[in-house]
Amino acid sequence: MARLDEILGDTLERRKKAGRLRQLTVRSPEKIDFSSNDYLSLAADTELQRKILARLEERICATERGEVARGILGSGGSRLLDGNSEFAEQLEEKIAGFHGAPAALLFNSAYDANVGLLQCVPQPGDVILYDEAIHASSHEGMRLSRASAKIPFAHDSMTTADSDSPNTGSHEGLEQVLQNLTKGHQGRAVREGSRNVFICVEGIYSMDGSVAHLARVVDLVEKWLPRQNGYIIVDEAHSVGVLGPQGRGLVSALGLETKIWAIVQGFGKALGSAGGVVLCSHTTRAYLVNYARTLIYTTSPAYSSLVSLDTIYDYLLAGNGDCRHDQLQQLIAHTWHLLQAMCSRLAAAAASTTDAALVRVDRLQAKSPIIPIYTSSPRSLAAWCQQRGFMVRPIVAPTVPAGTERVRICLHAMNSIGQVDALITTIEHWAREQKCLSTAQHMTSPGTVTGHSVLLKSNL
Question: Which of 155, 163, 167 is nearest to 204 (CA)?
Answer without folding.
Answer: 155
